[in-house]
């Protein structure tokens, strides 16, 4: 429960006003619960007894004897004037009015709590999504995509269902129990002290069962993440699954995970369903014990308790049984929900390796040069990817990066927008270390076109304007024309408002790539990063895309990763990577003349 209250301390402060209203409504509702129960005493006295007639009015006070004396005084006046039947009717009407007020305030409290509960759930969803897109790329190297989806969907849903649904109970039931218990003390001190001896024993038994749920629930949420991961991999790799006749293998893998999840959820839900019968059984035992003890006091003619007061007392006690049961059931739910929140919290508390410091500088334009100074980089597996690499890239020049796969080219360019940070050395733009620049400003200087065009299930227009504020329709059309994309866009069914499907699935590879280029053109960045932008295209699409890239690269500083050396013949400088180092630099002709690795790669492609 400590973790539950910690979560509430984090997310409830913005809802202080609603919490105050909820408390007020719950307090008023609890008070009218007591009034409706106390109204039973004179009603029962009218029905059961005639010797409670009071003809002397005492001075009003909170003393129990004075209070009940004066109430009975006025009831006696009504009885003498209108008779017992009419008196009973008046008392019944009073009970109806107090019950109406009780349920009315209870509804208002629940109405207010709904806003708090759904607001907190929304805040958790926003927090985990914002953190997921804020985390550096390196974080996802060790995380499964399906598990991350499970944390942001199923786990949040579990928190909403198990934890936030218990919020109403925690805001209402303690007030009801407290107010009713105080009233029970007021009616019969001896009987209430006896209740305090019996109730904690039942509460302890229920609490012991609830603690076993958390570990099992955490395991269940992890298994659900595995299931979502397999579904994501299966949909992404469906072409390969079918091509290699691997349907049975994937089905078997999925069945194994689903079966593990089924067994875990069986255990979890069977224990969870134990909450109601356990609390029902223990509550009945407590009720019978109180009935026996109170009945013994009456049979022994104890002056502190009579039959009508005892019945009213039992009614009050019944009013705290349901809230107590709700506590026990909520304890089960909260244990399950907190296991899900722990998985969410693991993301929320993940360290942001790529972050700004307090003195980060603004940069609005690129004027001079980019410098890589003796940089070294390795991923978490301790394999050095870049080894003491230095390079100077003047403003307005095109630098091509070539070499075998795994030689460090992509990592080299990923360090520039700080997708990762170097371990040694530094990268400088106009003499300023990029770690000293604001991240937004740094990345605003750059545009990316990758080997796989990353598009969104939205309109063509919105994909081109992605990340660019206040673009006009004319700007978008001009960018599409420069990218050789306007013709196929104009011929599509809805033009620029055509929805392109998941990851642009309704478009060809060349069309997707040209939209990526149009997006980069519209952003108009001074620094351009091209990562194998034409390697996956057919000859005709490659020509159209290459023309678009040449339009894009004009008057820009460009870093181009290429496997097809023919696409970088005209680069101002070509850098040849080999095993994490730049081993050759120069123009195409200079490198051919050196008769080194570049010439070997060129000869292999020309043969």
Description:
By secondary structure, the chain is an alpha/beta fold. The protein folds into two domains: 2-348, ABC transporter type 1, transmembrane domain (ABC transporter transmembrane region fold), CATH 1.20.1560; 369-606, Rossmann fold. The protein has 23 helices and ten strands. The strands form two sheets. It has a six-stranded mixed β-sheet with strand order 6-7-8-3-9-10. A four-stranded antiparallel β-sheet has the order 2-1-4-5, with no helix packed on it. The protein has helices at residues 2-11, 16-38, 40-48, 64-82, 84-134, 145-152, 154-163, 167-187, 189-210, 213-236, 238-243, 247-272, 275-299, 307-348, 409-414, 439-444, 460-464, 473-482, 486-491, 509-523, 539-553, 588-594, 597-606; strands at 369-378, 384-394, 398-403, 424-429, 432-433, 446-449, 527-531, 557-561, 573-578, 581-586. It starts with a helix and ends with a helix.
What name does the CATH topology of the largest domain carry? ABC transporter transmembrane region fold
Low-pLDDT regions: none
Q: Work out the strand percent.
A: 5-15%
Structural class: alpha/beta
> What is the CA-atom radius of gyration, in angstroms?
37 Å
Main sheet: which strands, in order across?
6-7-8-3-9-10
> What top-tier CATH class of the largest domain fits best?
Mainly Alpha
How far apart the termini lie comes to: 71 Å
Q: Which homologous superfamily in CATH is the superfamily of the largest domain?
A: ABC transporter type 1, transmembrane domain
Mean pLDDT: 81
Strand tally, please? 10
Count of all domains: 2
Helix content: 55-70%
What's the helix count?
23
The largest sheet is: 6 strands, mixed
Principal-axes geometry comes out as elongated
CATH architecture of the largest domain: Up-down Bundle
């Amino acid at each position: 429960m400590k973790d539950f209250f910690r979560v509430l301390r984090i997310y409830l402060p913005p809802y202080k006003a609603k919490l105050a209203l909820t408390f007020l409504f719950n307090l008023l509702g609890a008070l009218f619960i007591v009034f409706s129960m106390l109204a039973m005493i004179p009603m029962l006295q009218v029905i059961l007894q005639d010797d409670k007639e009071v003809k002397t009015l005492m001075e009003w006070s909170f003393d129990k004897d004075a209070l009940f004396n004066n109430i009975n005084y006025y009831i006696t006046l009504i009885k003498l004037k209108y008779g017992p039947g009419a008196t009973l009717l008046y008392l019944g009407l009073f009970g109806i009015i107090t019950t109406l007020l009780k349920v009315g305030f209870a509804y208002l409290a629940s109405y207010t709590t709904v806003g708090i509960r759904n607001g907190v759930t929304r805040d958790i969803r926003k927090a985990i999504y914002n953190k997921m897109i804020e985390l550096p790329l390196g974080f996802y190297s060790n995380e499964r995509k399906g598990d991350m989806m499970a944390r942001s969907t199923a786990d949040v849903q579990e928190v909403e269902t198990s934890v936030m649904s218990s919020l109403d109970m925690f805001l209402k039931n303690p007030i009801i129990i407290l107010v009713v218990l105080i009233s029970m003390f007021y009616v019969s001190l001896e009987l209430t002290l006896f209740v305090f001896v019996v109730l904690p024993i039942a509460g302890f038994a229920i609490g012991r069962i609830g603690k076993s749920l958390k570990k099992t629930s955490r395991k269940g949420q992890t298994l659900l993440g595995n299931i979502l991961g397999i579904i994501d991999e299966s949909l992404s790799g469906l072409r390969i699954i079918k091509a290699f006749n691997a349907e049975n293998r994937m089905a078997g893998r999925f069945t194994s995970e689903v079966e593990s999840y089924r067994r875990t959820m069986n255990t979890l839900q069977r224990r969870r369903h134990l909450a109601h019968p356990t609390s029902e059984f223990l509550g009945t035992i407590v009720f019978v014990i109180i009935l026996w003890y109170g009945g013994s006091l009456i049979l022994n003619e104890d002056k502190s308790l009579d039959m009508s007061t005892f019945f009213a007392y039992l009614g009050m006690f019944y009013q705290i049984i349901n809230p107590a049961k709700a506590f026990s059931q909520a304890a089960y739910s909260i244990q399950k929900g907190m296991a899900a929140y722990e998985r969410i919290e693991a993301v929320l508390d993940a360290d942001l390796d790529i972050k700004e410091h307090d003195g980060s500088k603004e940069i609005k334009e690129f004027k001079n040069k980019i410098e890589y100074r003796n940089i070294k980089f390795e991923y978490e597996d301790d394999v050095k990817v870049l080894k003491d690499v230095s390079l100077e890239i003047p403003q307005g020049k095109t630098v091509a990066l070539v070499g075998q796969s795994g030689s460090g080219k992509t990592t080299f360019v990923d360090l520039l927008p700080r997708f990762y940070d170097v371990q040694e050395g530094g990268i400088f733009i106009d003499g300023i270390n990029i770690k000293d620049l604001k991240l937004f400003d740094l990345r605003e200087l750059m545009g990316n076109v990758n080997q796989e065009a990353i598009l969104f299930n939205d309109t063509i227009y919105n994909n081109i304007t992605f990340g660019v504020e206040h673009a006009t329709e004319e700007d978008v059309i001009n960018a599409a024309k420069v990218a050789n994309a306007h013709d196929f866009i104009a011929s599509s069914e809805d033009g620029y408002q055509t929805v392109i499907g998941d990851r642009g699935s309704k478009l060809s590879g060349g069309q997707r790539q040209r939209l990526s280029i149009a997006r980069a053109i519209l952003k108009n960045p001074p620094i351009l990063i091209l990562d194998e932008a034409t390697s996956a295209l057919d000859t005709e699409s490659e020509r159209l895309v290459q023309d678009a890239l040449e339009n894009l690269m004009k008057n820009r500083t460009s870093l181009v990763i290429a496997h097809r050396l023919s696409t970088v013949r005209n680069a101002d400088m070509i850098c040849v990577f080999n095993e994490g180092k730049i081993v050759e630099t120069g123009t195409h002709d200079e490198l051919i003349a050196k008769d080194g690795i570049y010439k070997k790669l060129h000869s292999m492609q020309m043969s």
